[in-house]
Amino acid sequence: MALVQVFNLMMPLLVYPYLIRVLGDTLYGKIVFAQTVATYFSIFINFGFNVSGAKDVAIHRDNTYKIKEIVSSILIIKIAFWFLSLFVLILGLLLFNVKGNDFWLYVFSFFICLNEVLFPQWFFQGIEKMKYITIINFCLKVLFFVLIFVFVTGNEDFLLVPLLNSVGVFTGGMISLYVIFQKEKVMFGFPSFNIIRTHLKDNINLFISDVVISVKDRFNILFVGIFLGMDMVAIYDLGIKILLLVMLPISILNNALYPKMAIEKDKKLLSKIMKYSFIFYILVTTVLEFLVPQIVYFLGGDNLMNAVTPTRIFLLSAVVYSLGFPLAHNGLLVFNKYKLLLIGMVLTTLFYLFCILIGYTFSLLENVSIFAIITVLVYTFEFIYRYIVCKRENIVVNRTF
């Protein structure tokens, strides 16, 4: 799973310098904006099944009939939601009078949502055969990487970026379904309406939590595009890509330790994770702060040197994240404090929207750095809430540091 995360973050960064130089920051910003719109449809199409599906498959992996029911139900629901989402997207584009290449940019970007329908990562997680995901993901990312360099040679080719991505997603999905139905011998059937309704009802809370999380994690790109323009989206996107790559080690570490923590519920281990993660990220962030100009120049060239200051601000989030993420993943989740975790997500989202409202009211949303500051404030608020709650619930020991 860690390899999948690395591939998903590294490949866009490898393609990034080429696309920025060939397409320019404005066109690239348009692509990022359209893909962000598509991710919201992905959340609806997924409907929390990436979590519940993996759990259900893991529980019933030896029950052929039950696996058939689970796989068939989830695929049918996702296909139906995909077509419904496509209808809503096209209707929205027509209502907002989006025409020409911009219309097709959003449509082609939407087809990336086929990944939620055809690529059942949840199934392979459930049967603990992640090698399929790793191999398929790696091959498709490399293929996309090569095709971009071959076919995208000028700004007139910008529609090929989401189109080639969608072709890769469709190909990977077809291969995945072949593995499920041919290699793993899973049967497909049409479950009753009551079974499908039960699956939907059981996933409402997961879906709501995904929506809440997506607001604070992804709305910034939409706001940057609306208030500042598509060229600023490219600057924001570069900063956030670097931040996500920097934060990846703490996610991998906590995911690796989760099974041990789930069994042992070792509070001292949680404290050690936080302590050493904090020290590590203080050192890494300090070094990176000096290297940001070189990193930005390498990835974006002269056109995106305005991303230096926002990126430096973004990196401060990694230090706070190194404390907040363990408290959630190996703290609240391990000790079954799901309700408190969800409350924290809601409060953090409300705090984020409050920051945006204040910024809009006082005309502060005038550059990407303001959005970077809001990001740091949101991560800080999230950490403070989690620490207070974990302290109250006696999840963290008195001397965490």
What would you say about this model in short?
With 401 residues, this protein is mostly helical. The chain contains 16 helices and no strands.
Write the layout of secondary structure elements.
Blueprint: H1 2-23, H2 25-46, H3 49-59, H4 64-95, H5 100-110, H6 114-118, H7 121-126, H8 131-151, H9 160-183, H10 193-202, H11 204-227, H12 230-264, H13 267-300, H14 308-332, H15 338-361, H16 368-392
Task: Describe the protein's architecture and organization.
The chain has 401 residues and is an all-alpha fold. The protein folds into two domains: 2-202, no CATH class; 217-392, no CATH class. The chain has 16 helices and no strands. Helix 1 runs antiparallel to helix 2 (25-46), helix 1 (2-23) runs antiparallel to helix 12 and helix 14 (308-332) packs parallel to helix 16. The radius of gyration is 22 Å and the shape is globular. The chain starts with a helix and ends in a 9-residue tail after the last helix.
| Estimated helix fraction | over 70%
First-to-last CA distance = 30 Å
**Describe the biggest sheet?**
none
Number of helices: 16
Number of strands: 0
Low-confidence residue ranges: none
Overall residue-averaged pLDDT value? 90
The radius of gyration computed from the alpha-carbon positions, rounded to a whole number of angstroms, is: 22 Å
What general form does the structure show?
globular
> Could you say which structural class the secondary elements and strand pairing correspond to?
mainly alpha
Please give the domain count: 2
Percent of residues in beta strands: under 5%
Order of helices and strands: HHHHHHHHHHHHHHHH
